[in-house]
What we know:
This protein is α+β, with helices and mostly antiparallel strands. It has helices spanning 6-23, 29-36, 40-53, 73-85, 92-101, 109-118, 186-199, 231-239, 253-263, 266-272, 278-296, 316-319, 424-435, and strands at residues 144-152, 162-169, 175-181, 205-208, 242-245, 322-327, 333-336, 339-342, 356-361, 367-371, 374-379, 385-386. The strands form three sheets. The protein has a five-stranded mixed sheet with strand order 3-2-1-4-5, with helices on both faces. The longest helix has 19 residues, at 278-296. It contains 13 helices and twelve strands. Residues 390-419 have low confidence and may be disordered. The chain is elongated and about 160 Å long.
Amino acid sequence: MHVYPARALERAMKVKEVITRALSGEINWMQAAEILGMTDRHLRRWRNKWEKYGYEDLFDRRMKRPSPKRVALGDLEQVLQLYREKYFDLNVKHFVEKLHEEHHIGFSYTWVKTALQTAGLVHRYRKRGQHRKKRPRRPLPGMLLHVDGSKHRWIPGLDAYQDLIVVFDDATSEMYYARLVDEESTETVMAGLKQVIADRGVFCALYSDRGSHLVYTPQAGKAPDRRVKTQIGRALEQMGIELIPANSPQARGRCERLFGTWQGRLPQEIRLRSISTVEAANAYLPEWIDSEHNRKFAVEAQEPGTAFVAYGGAELDKIWSNQQERVVGNDNTVTYGKLSLQIPKQTFRFSLARCRVLVCRHLDTTISVHYGPHRLGHYNTQGRLLGMAHRKMGQAMAHPASRSSSINDPGAKFFPTMRLEPSKKEKRTKKERMGRPDGN
């Protein structure tokens, strides 16, 4: 009996038990046949076989034959060897894709997963958690974008963790931006959003977590204070983009599942290509996004069209910067941290002393000072003045404006005012007035 599989043994034991109960009178033969899923006539055949040949004849002898779809032992050993030696850090789905695309081994996902679990190469996971309702996708691209960062050891050759910043669409799951950085921060998230707007256009809403660089939460576990704007919140408001903070990690399930997929695929692809630096990994990311993520995981939008609107302004660098207000000193300098920024002479105002100006630290670490629509100066990280192509945002510098005084422009030329000679009538009227006693 050892040649029969376990399910055949269970079937024979069940038939024996039911027939025994029918013979003892506990149940009738019609009920016994219904329990076994057969007719009473066929059940009587099983009873006669048992009485004539014994318990051995209750087994289905067809179960002793090997399945015509049985996998050869050599193929099984090849799959297990590939996983142990080359693809040991891939998840099952990724490993099955490698078998199909690179090794032309067409086994199904279920078979490969069962084989790896039986061999002890893959753990069996039990899904837990409460039932949740899936949030439907937005119908058009550009209506809702997701932004998030994931800390992981993305480069296996480095003994350090990196943060992966991603921006992708809710309607299609198409990836618009991905970059490895040392730490998720205001500047790294701003760089991604600015790049998406420059490439695609202005979108409608942004879905994110409740990180301190995105929203201000006065008390942990409580709702964020929408009245206090972070630098990213202020920039989104200027662009007319709604910021939607998630209330829990489960609410960002689409983003969390994406990171789970990437953590099981991207580090392994980086290892297979012998990439060992962050710069090389960032250079490889666009290729991997096009060939892997967008090709395999992006879906069609529910409706044709797009919600992206092209940005026609020229202030992206100013909007997507760290902005702080300062008051100009009497010597036309602005104190910013440990730097003293000297404002050069301006054409529209005699002096900017005691004026409130806006200091912007840009993503390229340079600094600019603005007064209304005018850019007063552009500085490097040491506070040294850099050359500017224009003085007013969005307008090229043309001819200088008229000067108000020679102090504002020592090199300005002033011409004497031409005075008209009075007429004879005006001279006679003046003499008459001079001869009157009251002078009127």
